[in-house]
Amino acid sequence: MVHFKLFNRFDLREYMFNGMLSTPLNDEKSERLMNARFEATLPSSMDVLIVGAGISGIGSAYYLQERNPNKSYAIIEARDSIGGTWDLFRYPGIRSDSDLFTFAYAFKPWKSNQSIASGELIMDYLRETVKENGIDKHIHFHHKLISAAWSSSEARWQVEIERSDTGQRIQVSCKWLISASGYYRYDEGFTPDFAGRERFQGQIVHPQFWPQDLNYTGKKVVVIGSGATAVTLVPSMASKAAHVTMLQRTPTYIVPVPSQDPLSNTLRDYLPENIAYKITRGKNILMQRAIFDLCQRFPDQSRKALRYLNSRYLPKDYPVDTHFNPPYNPWDQRLCTVPDADLFKTLKDGKASIVTDKIAQFTETGIQLESGQYLDADIIVTATGLKLQAFGGATMSVDGVPVNTAEKVAYRGMMLSGVPNFSFVIGYTNSSWTLKVGVLSEQLCKLLAYMDKKGYATCIPEFDGSEMDTRPLLDFAAGYVKRAANDLPRQGMNAPWLMSMSYLGDLRLLKTTPLIDKHLRFGYRAKTAKHRVTTKAKAAVV
Ligand SMILES: Cc1cc2nc3c(=O)[nH]c(=O)nc-3n(C[C@H](O)[C@H](O)[C@H](O)COP(=O)(O)OP(=O)(O)OC[C@H]3O[C@@H](n4cnc5c(N)ncnc54)[C@H](O)[C@@H]3O)c2cc1C
Questions:
Q1: Are 90 and 58 in contact (CB under 8 A)?
Q2: Is the peptide bond before 496 cis (omega within 30 degrees of 0)?
């Protein structure tokens, strides 16, 4: 006991563990082993249960413990590591698409010179965040949420968890459930059915399941796709491969961005770290929004500007309009960024090329295209996307009635109509995901504090279907979003039922509109369901 008082849990683990090893392990390996050996038991009940220890779950935990320190909480994580996306994806060159001055949390300055950062740097940042805020003590690895059943009489969620290492099932209960489980399946990526796939004699790799021993030195590689993953992989693999071909059916807008932020690097020489961070972050938030708005308001001019930018980095006779001219307007789908124009340099050097065509079939030695062109390949990488999934694949019920998520409407982009004491974290798709984590956490912490003050035990958003039409939750034209639109909840046409994608708009809404409105029904906890009293909220600014 004395030791636990003298050391925080992490120091103690390091102290004990280092003594057992003759050769030190690298950070990540030792972290995983320590997690496995010293993991505390998940309490049988808590105020708040957070599902997922990715960037959203960690951010949610930070705000919760800062703003509502009276709440007990735990994070369950299906895998053996924090980081979610940034730990899962291990393909060559894995990096952010967003600048880290907006992708990092508001509460923890991004200190690296790299504005577009590698997966490894992002993981270091997240490890530091959980460690220095004591969030690591609340994380339970290998705990996968299977189902959550709401009981109105108990005013609690009964949660079923599977130990993903032992298969053991555990039941715990909580007063509030936060799903921070990301938006896609971890066990499966998306790959279209390619005719003749089984005939191919080389290796087919999906970026979500990258074999760490994949040897592509001197090999002919075809990367199928045109999204963020494909444009990252092509220049990274080209340094070792004989040649890399990016095979796309439809082009994407690709924007060269500097990998470092000159303003941040200058400010940091003169100002304290957190002030320099705030200024750079503010500048980037405004810039992101301005670019998005410009693209939406002036699509033709934006298209021309992007075309000009692309052609500047490409050889004179390069067919820019064939490979860099999407059939949709800029920002109807997410723009892809390439740091320091790396993709363009690789194309210019001839180490990689782009082919825009349709696949007729795979053959023993490559890919036959519909145009008649043939691509020889030793390795085919299917950078064809993700399989979207709501709420980590867990099922939910309310008083024994299964929740059909596709019929639910999102309230303030964080709760679901008819589902009590439940919130979820889905970030922005048109700017840095994490900006929304801050907004949602702020809303939730205020709501929880309001409920405590009033003595309420339950909160349910109520959507009156006759009030307005609904549309898909993620109103984004990308293929992977469209494929899943019917499995995801929906959003309304107006606030508070909108899934806002504007950080500045969200900030304005937080400041100017009451968080508690007529759409929320609150209830007290009573000994029996019969005595439960409910009340519709009167608008109150909290
Ligand atoms: C390759 C790639 C690059 C990206 N780059 C950017 C970028 O540059 N900028 C940007 O804004 N966005 C980017 N995104 C989107 C990105 O996913 C988010 O920015 C962010 O990392 C998502 O964090 P998250 O915590 O919400 O979800 P995730 O990172 O997916 O983490 C979810 C966590 O929940 C756990 N989990 C899931 N289901 C369960 C369950 N049932 N029980 C217990 N645990 C569960 C998972 O194991 C995981 O650890 C990128 C996405 C990908 C795939």
A1: no
A2: yes
Q: Is 352 a pocket residue for ligand 1 (Cβ < 6 Å)? A: no
Q: Does ligand 1 have an atom closer than 6 angstroms to the CB of 334?
A: no
3-state secondary structure of 496: coil
Q: In this structure, what is the dihedral angle of CA atoms 535, 539, 540, 542, given to the nearest 10 degrees?
A: 100
Residues 229 and 383 sit within 8 Å (Cβ to Cβ): yes
What's the average pLDDT block by block, 10 residues per block, for the chain (542 residues)? 34 36 50 59 96 98 98 98 97 97 98 96 98 97 98 97 95 98 94 95 97 97 97 98 98 95 95 97 95 93 95 94 94 90 96 98 98 98 94 97 95 96 94 95 96 97 87 76 81 91 90 90 72 54 47
Residues 206 and 345 grouped into a single domain: yes
Q: Is any atom of ligand 1 closer than 6 Å to the C-beta of 396?
A: no
Q: Within this chain, do residues 254 and 352 fall inside the same structural domain, yes or no?
A: yes
Is the CB of 134 inside a 6 Å radius of any atom of ligand 1? no
Establish whether residue 75 lines the binding site of ligand 1, counting it when its CB lies within 6 angstroms of any ligand atom: no
| Most informative mutation of 181, 422, 432 for ligand 1 (most atoms within 8 A of CB) | 181
Is residue 362 located within the same domain as residue 453? no
Amino acid letter, residue 402? P
Tokens of 170: 């555990």
CA 118–ligand 1 middle distance (angstroms): 15
Asked whether residue 271 is assigned to any structural domain, the reply reads no
Please check whether residue 519 lies inside any domain of the structure: no
Query: Which CATH number covers residue 145?
Result: 3.50.50.60
Q: Both 73 and 123 in a single domain?
A: yes
- Secondary structure in 3-state letters for 186-254: EEEECCCCCCCHHHCCCEEECHHHCCCCCCCCCCEEEEECCCHHHHHHHHHHHCCCCEEEEEECCCCCE
Q: What is the pLDDT of residue 293?
A: 92
| Residue 314 sits in the same domain as residue 439 | no
Ligand 1 binding pocket includes 210 (Cβ within 6 Å): no
Could you tell me if residue 21 is inside a domain? yes
User: What is the per-residue pLDDT for 25?
Assistant: 46
Are 55 and 139 within one domain?
A: yes
Question: Is 450 found in the same domain as 500?
Answer: yes
d(CA 409, CA 412): 10
Distance from the alpha carbon of residue 85 to the mean position of ligand 1, in angstroms: 4
Would 532 be classed as within a structural domain?
A: no
Q: Please state the domain count of the chain.
A: 3
Domain span including residue 237:
191-261+298-384
Task: Looking at the structure, tell me whether residues 236 and 371 fall in a common domain.
Answer: yes
